[in-house]
Amino acid sequence: MALSNVLESPASGFNFDNAARNAAFEGLFEEGHPPKPMKTGTTIAGVVFKDGVVLGADTRATSSEVVADKMCAKIHYISPNIYCCGAGTAADTEKTTDLLSSNLTVFSLNSGRNPRVVMAVNILQDMLYRYHGQIGANLILGGVDCTGNHLYTVGPYGSVTKVPYLAMGSGDLAALGILEDGFKHDLELEKAKELVRDSIHAGIMSDLGSGNNIDICVITKQGVDYIRPFQESEYKDTRKPKYKYRPGTTPVLTKKVVPLKLEVVEETQQRMDTV
Amino acid sequence: MAAASMMPIFSQNVSSKSDLVPDWTRQEVSTGTTIMAVEYDGGVVVGADSRTTTGAYIANRVTDKLTRIHDRIYCCRSGSAADTQAIAEVVSYQLGFHSIELDEPPLVETAAHLFRASCYRYREELMAGILVAGWDRRKGGQVYCVPIGGMLVRQPVSVGGSGSSYIYGYMDSNYKPGLSKDQCLDLTAKALALAMERDGSSGGVVRLATISEKGVERRVLLGDQLPKFSTH
Q1: Which domain covers residue B133, as residue numbers?
Q2: What binding partners and quaternary form does the record give (chain A) (predicted)?
Q3: Which of A61, A159, B81, B157 is 20 to 30 Å from B125 by CA-CA measure?
Q4: Model pTM?
């Protein structure tokens, strides 16, 4: 629709521009093993409660067996009233949610209102179906709009499911067990946050691809509460990314001062034009 | 699966045996299913189970496979969840537009032909088995079957999905022309319950809908309300 798409509407059929590039890419590496894309082997969950939606996610991003990012943000901003958790290929979830967010921002500016969750879902479904599973994004969309509180999931092939509680990612079996047991309609905020926290925690405990901290995002009619981190992992890393030492840490044994004599050879002034 | 086999050979392999992400997350979401539709004098009864699977995992245990196409036309979806949702949306739009142009409620036959047109044209890319059922003023209650491949045939009673193989015998022996609405509902509920009992890809609750001149009546049979059979 003209309102929501800044970019030109896509050409019909699939866009496999990158397929030739990928094929050439594979040839450059020994034994044809290109680096594997970074996946957010993940646990994400969402619950609809009395006043809105609670989304939760772990913060581990893996590249095969290595943890690539310990503080990865998996709850993406879509619009002031809609947030999206992403599982699957990290790059795909990032870019897809970014694209969705910018399209919906244009819509908001054009129409003067917040987008509805069902709009976001339809745009996502459209795009992912067009790419027939090539975009590896498993997304949980949650938001509050004038029609109520909604939670949807969109699969990589473009299938949409609307349910009151959800879990996705490699840790979803464990998380769903907790949700199935503890979910009730019209939960209170604190109970809902606890339920989501417990389910992500179960995913972290039972799945190697999930771990580190737990992020929670609460969306209500009043606004959004993005708590990052909601709960930190007990296994904290004491190593710092930057090393700054207090002056005096290293003892000074000797000191020698050599003054450098400088003469002014040439002096120029450059005037700046200020209008 | 037809959809999976259509992917080009040079597509990026996003996963391997040593990956931490389990196999079923990469499978396409399928409504491995049991669906059924029966005509009676004055309308149709449609029914479906509620299980959507991704490989061996049940992605949604409360799916609604009875999708509204128009006020008095519904379709039962089986096959790939994404494909059937997409086709249903397209046909829904086309039929809605057609109905506004004519200023008249659309015919069930038209809806069935629209489904067939999409399913046949893109038969290589799609995996969708659909039952189109509804009521219109010209021919009353009608059931049309559009299986994988894009055939179109009208039948008084039709079953579809992976669980249908288990209930052909039940259908053949228990369906008679001239059943009443309640008998049709009973037949559908029992048939679906039997299929759900035997087919691993079908289960959950039974969703029923009756479509007639008066409109659509929807019903859900929860686990404890399902018809029971001997558990020898």
Answers
A1: 43-220
A2: Component of the proteasome complex.
A3: B157
A4: 0.78
Identify the CATH number of the domain in which residue A155 sits: 3.60.20.10
- Residue A5 inside a domain? The answer is no
B79 φ, ψ (degrees, to nearest 5): 110, -145
Whether cis (ω within 30° of 0) applies to the bond prior to A229 is: yes
Strands (E), chain A: 44-49, 52-58, 61-63, 66-69, 75-79, 82-88, 137-145, 148-154, 160-162, 165-168, 214-220, 224-231
Chain B residues near residue A132 by CB distance under 8 angstroms? 3, 6-7, 125
Residues B35 and B50: their CA atoms lie apart, in Å, by 10
pLDDT score recorded for residue A31:
66
Residue B19 inside a domain? The answer is no
Residue A1 lies in a domain: no
The number of distinct structural domains making up chain A is 1
Q: Dihedral sign, CA of B87, B93, B97, B102?
A: positive
Q: Which residues form the domain of A129? A: 43-231
**ipTM strictly over 0.95?**
no
pLDDT in tens, A158-214: 999 999 999 999 899 999 999 999 999 999 999 999 999 999 999 999 988 888 899
CA distance B130 to B84: 8
